[in-house]
Amino acid sequence: MSARGEVFLGDLARAVAGLRPADAETMAAMARLLHLEPAPSPGPAYGDPARPPSAARPSAPAPSPMADEGRPSSGPEEPAGAAPAARPARRGQGEDDARARRGRERVRRLGDRPVDLSLTSLDPIPGGVEGRAAGGGSPAPDPELLRRGAVTTGLRHEPPWKRDWERGVVFAAVATTAESTVYDQPALIRKVARQEVLLSIPRRRRLTTRRGAQLLLDHGKAMVPFQDDRDWLCELVGSVAGRDRVEVLRFRGTPDRGVVRDDPRVREPYRPPAPGTPVVLFSDLGRMRPPFASGAVAGPAEWRTFVDSVLHAGCPVVCVTPYRPLDYSPALRRVIAFIPLDHGISLRHAHEATSRVRRALEGA
To answer: Model-level pTM greater than 0.70?
Structure first.
């Protein structure tokens, strides 16, 4: 519908393209709902060719003989049985008659005319081309879409990261370092050059997801616009780190206020995972404060207390947030690896942010 509140033929076209009626009766019902149904055709108007000639113009009354007695004669008297001679038409009489006919004609509305445009669907209709190729008619509409109160599906979720890089970004967030079976020759040469006692042969370290991850999902009011991203991230982390090794917890405010596992009616106290297990947060860390929700939103001090408790347990913290890392305080940026929900993020940024937090934790 237009912004002015009026209904036009384009509104009917959009409704037909969206609902795809199967027959003309359904289309006529849609037109009646939009008050665009054609009005009944009236009878032939004055001057209509379909009207008989006798009814086209009212007959002139017969001249009275008494009216001609006092009228001066302008010419020779005509015979009694002769037909009257044609009188010249008054100037402008034809234009007046045409203007009168146009005024008496009914103005046809836009909705009275038949639909003379093509309604082409932009989305492929299931079975449309195949059905026509097989000799069948137009496909029948889905009864669920025509049922009153039916809710159609929304737009498809668009991932915030590039599809070729999203798994690599998640791998950088949930990966930890572990010793491999390959010897670290550069480290061994440095120890021998410094004449250090070799208690063990150094080995190279590699990234692994064997420890799994703990995924903390923020269900506060500020993260409601990102609920599709939240479900997408939960599925992606499970596919990268292993669904049997990912612990999914939900919270509001901070996890210290209580977490929910499966049953939303049961709130449990938060416990950090085993040392070395990465903790992935999907939250804004109290950056967005909805109106009338000041008590439910945790402040920076409360978040810093929670992060310190997780670091004290020996777990690196990674935060996937809809904001930029520079939007947070330097105290939080030193201990948390921020990965924004930005399509321009690169694998290099994700690996550098997470490796910095891992090195800081190992050095401590």
So the answer is: no
